[in-house]
């Protein structure tokens, strides 16, 4: 079953670290079967109106997304991010 990896950046504390993370994370997630669908700031907000950078990656399954997260390549990306942002990341299964 398809899964969605959703990351929201609540606060960017060090743009250089975020950039270093992005350079490593994208190829790591793509190599693990992820496809980037969207990333950036919202074009429109409703309700809480939070203007947070959001990234949406599609994986073939929840298991594939978990494996991508736990992979050495993605762990290297997380190490590069170390304290550079406050984020929320979740994986949800498609309906």
TrEMBL record:
Domain (DUF1330) ranges: 2-93
Q: Name one Pfam family in it.
A: DUF1330
InterPro entries, sorted:
Dimeric_a/b-barrel, DUF1330
Q: What is the protein's name according to its record? A: Uncharacterized protein (DUF1330 family)
């Amino acid at each position: 079953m398809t899964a969605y990896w959703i990351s929201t950046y609540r606060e960017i504390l060090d743009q250089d670290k975020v950039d270093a993370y992005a350079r490593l994370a994208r190829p790591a997630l793509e190599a693990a079967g992820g496809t980037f669908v969207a990333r950036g700031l919202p074009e429109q907000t409703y309700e809480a109106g939070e203007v947070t950078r959001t990234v949406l990656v599609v994986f073939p399954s929840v298991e594939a997304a978990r494996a991508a997260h736990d992979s050495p390549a993605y762990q290297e990306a997380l190490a590069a991010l170390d304290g550079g942002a406050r984020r929320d990341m979740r994986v949800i299964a498609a309906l």
